[in-house]
Write a structure and sequence with these properties.
By secondary structure, the protein is an alpha+beta fold. The chain has helices spanning 8-14, 21-29, 75-78, 88-99, 115-124; strands spanning 33-35, 38-39, 51-55, 60-65, 82-84. It contains 5 helices and 5 strands. A 5-stranded antiparallel β-sheet has the order 2-1-3-4-5. Strand 3 (51-55) and strand 4 form a beta hairpin. Keywords: RNA-binding.
């Protein structure tokens, strides 16, 4: 039999929405975790059937609690303890954002010519190496 009380920050950490419990608690304190449109504190007890709106760095989640998880487990196991109710438009926005993500590196094969391309350019322009 599992314990009946479980803090919200510990639950969010155990289902792997946050990397550390501290990050989960901070998110609660800064109003990034809401229940029915109202911010909730990290110490709030979680019950089965509760719905939460959670804003992480990566995306905005809407989850429904289906089971209480006291310890952090593998992702494949953790997903059995909540239902992801995130709206489809949020998922679409994330996919578009990922597709348009720019790392700041220049695209491959664009920019300075390679040694081979440089030789071909010189040859084309009529500049021979050994005159």
């Amino acid at each position: 039999m599992q314990k009946e009380k479980l803090r919200l920050d510990k639950y969010l950490w155990s289902i792997r929405l946050f990397k550390t419990r501290t990050l989960a608690a901070t998110a609660c304190d800064t109003g990034k975790v809401k229940q029915a449109g109202t911010s909730v504190k990290a110490a709030k007890n979680v019950s089965i059937g509760d719905e939460y709106e959670v804003k992480t760095e990566a995306k905005k989640w809407v989850i429904k609690v289906t089971g209480l998880l006291h310890n952090r487990v593998a992702y494949s196991e953790a997903i059995n303890y909540y239902i992801d109710l995130t709206p489809a438009e949020e998922i679409d926005r994330l996919q578009f954002q990922a597709a348009s993500f720019h790392t700041g590196k220049r695209p491959s094969k664009i920019g300075r010519p390679t040694k081979k391309q440089r030789r071909e350019l010189d040859e084309f322009q009529g500049e021979s190496e050994a005159d």
